[in-house]
Amino acid sequence: MWRFPTVHGIIRDVITVLSVGGSIIAPDRPDPEFLRAFRAAIGDYLAAHADDRLVFVIGGGAPARIYQQALRSASRDASASLLDWIGIRATHLNAMLVQAVFAPLSSPGIVTDPTGDIDFSGRILVAGGWKPGFSTDTDAVYLARRYGARKVVNLSNIKKVYTDDPRTNPDAIALDSISWHDFRKMVGDEWSPGRNTPFDPVASRMAEESGITVICADGRNIANTIAILEGRDAEGTVIGA
Fold first, then answer.
1. Which of these ranges, 191-195, 199-203, 232-236, has the smallest mean pLDDT?
2. DSSP for the chain?
């Protein structure tokens, strides 16, 4: 467990960016029970914090994996760019679902280019993927820089960052915090379509260069997500300088 500093260091941002993994929106298929509970909790949070706004950047989840694997199986000539585009379209599908679930709190439409014109007229902005070469984690960093957010909350189906993959290495150690230098040594610098890392390498480089802190946490634990947003004790891993 860790606590955000309340005076120096990390404090609550008025605009917070959340990179919401497709693994919690659509683990095998869209999860309406999770979406209902998430909608209720975020609605209560925004009602209690009248000045706050949230940016959700939504991952591809099961639709991305299923369609990418289908292409790999059906064609030996599938390029990395085309595989990425399939994943990106899956993020758009998931993002449209989330935007609709959160209406009328959400701004109209979904963001597909974090550098373009954006209508952020609602309390929540929903984005999907942009272009090949990285995951939606990178889009989240672009939007954090655009709106001056000092942290990105990375929600997935893992509770913490580990020193190795705990599914294959029983000696892997869960981390409460890790520097960008050490984290980037773990994940490397190269992106490949469908790659599964706690935070993608391209996004990690950008976040370090921009002085952005990333908190990796289990997005299925909605109470924990609200604790992070409110700067209270929470479970997860802080990646920073």
1. 191-195
2. -B---SSSS----SEEEEEE-HHHH-SSS--HHHHHHHHHHHHHHHHH-TT-EEEEEE--HHHHHHHHHHHHHH-TT--HHHHHHHHHHHHHHHHHHHHHHHTTTBPSS-BS-TTS-----SSEEEE---STTS-HHHHHHHHHHHHT-SEEEEEES-SSEESS-TTT-TT--EESEEEHHHHHHHH-S---TT---SS-HHHHHHHHHHT-EEEEEETT-HHHHHHHHTT--B-SEEEE-
Of the candidates 122, 155, 124, the one whose C-alpha atom is nearest the C-alpha of residue 222 is: 155
* Spatial CA neighbour of 159 closest among 15, 10, 24, 3: 24
Calculate the CA dihedral of residues 170, 172, 174, 180 and round it to 10 degrees: -160
Sequence length of the chain is 241
Q: Is the dihedral of CA 99, 66, 220, 206 positive or negative?
A: negative
Q: Give 151's strand partners.
A: 213
Identify the structural domains of the chain with CATH numbers, from first to last. Answer: 15-240 (3.40.1160.10)
| CA angle (163 as vertex; 177, 18 as ends), nearest 5 | 50
How do residues 27-83 score in pLDDT, each as one tens digit? Answer: 999 999 999 999 999 999 999 999 999 999 999 988 988 998 999 999 888 888 899
The pTM for the full model equals 0.91
What pLDDT score does 7 carry? 28
Could you give the percent of the chain with pLDDT greater than 70? Answer: 91
Q: Stretch 122-143: mean pLDDT, rounded?
A: 94
